[in-house]
Design brief:
The structure holds two protein chains of two kinds. A two-stranded antiparallel sheet of chain A has the order 1-2. Chain A is an all-alpha fold. Chain A contains eleven helices and two strands; from the N terminus they run ααααββααααααα. Chain A is globular and about 55 Å long. Chain A has a domain of 194 residues. In chain B, 53% of the residues are buried. In chain B, the strands form three sheets. In chain B, strands 8-7-9-10-11-14-15 form a seven-stranded mixed beta sheet, sandwiched between helices. The N terminus of chain B is likely disordered. Chain B is of the alpha/beta class. In chain B, strand 9, helix 8 and strand 10 form a beta-alpha-beta unit. Chain B is globular and about 70 Å long. The chains are: A mainly alpha, B alpha/beta. At the A-B interface, helix 1, helix 4, strand 2, helix 8 and helix 9 of A face helix 1, strand 8, helix 7 and helix 8 of B.
């Protein structure tokens, strides 16, 4: 039972971050490999405004989210968009986002130093008993937030005009642009939301592990794995992927040792890629030739 | 070509230039001949390799702090000036190999200091040994770095080794028939800790009940603690490189209400732990170390670093070790009078009679089969706990704690 509960909670952390990948992939067919650094960026921005006593914690979290979102939108405009102009086989954005990751990592390290810094903003101390397992309140908050964010994104994509535009651009950007919608703008907004979520994850995660330049890196592999397992084209995917990845890796860690946890999760990714390359909830795209 | 593309090209060129410059080494002085100049001072070209940038940069910073704080002292005491030629290895093994090769073959350094991490040092050990340059190792703990089968040996370590700490800790961990578990970081330091704990246990008729590894930056250690609990482990040793990862383990202990009777670790907890842990998580942790952080010469080194740099010592244990190795090397160069006579300098280091760390002196630390500054006599090691502010509290010597408990 412990493995199940703690796995679901851990999966929530990965699922929240995996939404960053899913969002950008659905709309722009790109992935930002600097997501880990946006996690750190969000955490450090919140740390920078932590001394603003006039602003409640929720406001500080929003500042972190907005700054990460703004930088994310700019990253799309200047480091992704120019490198995907040659059609769907143009994947130069892959290199430019990796380069962005290195630049951001070095910038943050030079400004803030390599050591973790305590972050008290939006911090819930202590743990609670969930079905007999001791769960950190902070981790539980992140897991609950993963569900809330996912539901909000699904509702927004299906029930709002903005969501309709987003889905239209994801399916046929050229036709959508003929109807007066700017795929470029939609891409920027999507990147802003996705990187805002990454920044939010960073803020909440930093309250547990401290804010450090490399804090996002260990989450990156698991989050991509979760997004792939759930399906990069499904907003529900990260929740399912996170639950499966988290529970499986915790179970393997409990049974065979910590070293097997991540390995088991990655074996799950391989199995899913063989069985359903589009992910468990992803939709297969048929192309007429 | 439109202006946007031109701007892009300029940005890319600038970025490449910046990256290229950052990859280059720093320092270097044409006057660093290794022999006495007109002022009677011997300027030594000291190659220093370590992670100047990246997440592990604290492991370079402690060396930097030591140079900044004590260079003038060494010049005054021994008429030896250090001209630092540094290379950034970013703690990446492949970069370490390149950096060491550059320092030895291109920069022509008179001695090599670093790399500070055990795994990286292990990787270049053969190369440095073959280069026949004095190798100053204030940081690493892995015994395997120095292979005494190869003589003469060029490496000198001024940190304790993992074999030594296990000799000190073994009895304590297994006292009263306790079941022992180790959680170790997935790197050279952690692996060396595991191997030496296991071999100490084997040699002394004990058995390690559980062994678990933690990846750097792991998001939780719940499974590790659960396995310890299920195995009945009541004595835990944490051989973890980063204090932040140690915090992940102690956080999981608290979360699972797991309270082993004994929790021991090393001085690595002094770095990065306090900022991400709570007093309730460190109240039962103890460390052992051959250095006295609270008074005497070791404490003087730390105070001097604080005063001179205005910063906290980056890694207190290694700040002291760096001072010690520079004292040893500077004495040897002064005695030989020529830093380029490498074999004579090496021999002088091996034969050194007294190492000075402030007012602390260590007599005759080295022999051809022992290039490690400290010994493994429990009477010479100290046991520390922590108060609620994470200030060290001296519990007694390791021998005393073994005898009457701490």
């Amino acid at each position: 039972m412990d493995a199940l509960v703690l796995g679901l909670v851990l999966g929530g952390l990965y699922a929240l971050l995996a939404q960053s990948f899913v969002l950008t992939f659905i709309t722009t067919k790109t992935l930002n490999f600097a997501v880990g650094e946006f996690v750190a960026l969000g955490a450090f921005v919140v740390l920078a405004v932590a001394s603003w006593s006039w602003l409640p914690d929720i406001g500080k979290v929003v500042v972190g989210l907005l700054v990460a979102g703004l930088i994310g939108a700019l990253a799309y405009r200047f480091l992704v968009l120019p490198f995907m102009t040659e059609g769907e086989h143009d994947v130069r954005w892959l290199l430019s986002t990796v380069a962005l990751s290195f630049v951001m990592l070095n910038l943050i390290t030079n400004v803030e130093g390599p050591s973790p810094q305590r972050s008290e903003t939006a911090r819930l101390g202590g743990s609670v008993d969930v079905l007999g397992a001791g769960v950190s309140k902070q981790q539980l908050l992140i897991a609950v937030l993963a569900v809330v964010v996912t539901v909000l994104l699904v509702v927004a994509s299906k029930k709002t005009p903005a969501g309709l535009v987003m889905r239209a651009v994801s399916q046929d950007p050229e036709t959508t642009s003929l109807m007066g919608v700017s795929p470029r703008l939609v891409g920027m907004v999507t990147y802003a939301v996705a990187m805002g979520i990454a920044g939010l994850t960073g803020t909440l995660y930093a309250a547990t592990v401290g804010a450090s330049p490399v804090m996002g890196a260990p989450l990156l592999v698991a989050s991509i794995a979760v997004a792939v397992v759930g399906g990069l084209s499904s907003l529900w995917g990260p929740l399912l992927g996170g639950a499966l990845y988290g529970v499986l890796s915790e179970f393997a860690s409990y049974e065979f040792g910590a070293i097997w946890g991540e390995t088991a999760g990655l074996l799950l990714v391989i199995a899913v890629l063989v069985w359903r390359p589009q992910g468990l909830l992803g939709r297969r795209t048929e192309v007429k030739l | 070509m439109n202006s946007f593309t031109r701007i892009h090209k300029r940005l890319v060129t600038a970025a490449v230039a910046v990256l290229a410059l950052s990859a280059c080494g720093g320092g270097g002085d044409d006057d660093a001949s290794g022999t006495a100049g007109a002022d009677g001072v011997i300027t030594v070209k000291l190659g220093v390799v370590g992670p100047k940038s990246g997440p592990a940069s604290l492991y370079y910073e402690y060396m930097d702090q030591t140079f900044e704080t004590f260079s003038d002292d060494f010049e005054e005491k021994y008429d030896v000036r250090f001209d630092i030629v540094s290379e950034d290895d970013q703690a990446a093994p492949e970069e370490t190999a390149r950096a060491v090769s550059r320092l030895i073959n291109e920069k022509g350094v008179h001695a090599l200091m670093g790399p500070p991490l055990s795994g990286n040092s292990l990787q270049v050990a053969d190369v440095v040994q073959k280069s026949q340059l004095p190798w100053l190792l204030p940081g690493p703990n892995a015994d395997e770095i120095i292979n005494y089968d190869v003589q003469p040996n060029w490496g000198f370590m001024t940190n304790f080794t993992n074999q030594q700490i296990m000799a000190i800790l073994g009895e304590r961990l297994w006292s009263d028939g306790q079941k022992v578990g180790i959680v170790y970081s997935a790197d050279g330091f952690g692996q060396s800790n595991l191997e030496h704990l296991k071999s100490w246990a084997e040699e002394n008729g004990h058995e390690l009940t559980a062994e678990e590894t933690i990846q750097p930056g792991a998001s939780d250690a719940n499974a590790i603690i659960k396995r310890f609990k299920d195995s009945g482990v009541d004595s835990v040793f944490m051989g973890i490189t980063q204090g932040a990862d140690t915090a992940t383990v102690t956080r999981a202990m608290e979360q699972a209400s797991y309270q082993p009777k004994t929790i021991m670790t090393t001085g690595t907890i002094l770095t990065d732990y306090q900022d991400v842990a709570e007093p309730s998580q460190w109240e039962n942790i103890q460390i052992v170390d051959p250095r006295n952080f609270l008074e005497g010469g070791d404490a003087w080194v730390l105070d001097q670093v604080r005063e001179e740099t205005g910063e906290e010592p980056a890694i207190p244990t290694n700040n002291i070790s760096s001072y010690a190795i520079l004292d040893i090397y500077a004495q040897a160069v002064k005695e030989v009078g020529d830093a380029t006579d490498f074999e004579a300098v090496r021999q002088a280091m091996e034969d050194i009679e007294t190492v000075h760390i402030g007012d602390l002196t260590i007599e005759n630390p080295f022999t051809p089969e022992d290039h490690v500054l400290y010994d493994d006599d429990p009477a010479n090691w100290l046991t520390y706990g922590f108060d609620k502010n994470f200030d060290l509290v001296l519990k007694g010597t390791a021998a005393e704690c073994l005898e009457k408990g701490c």
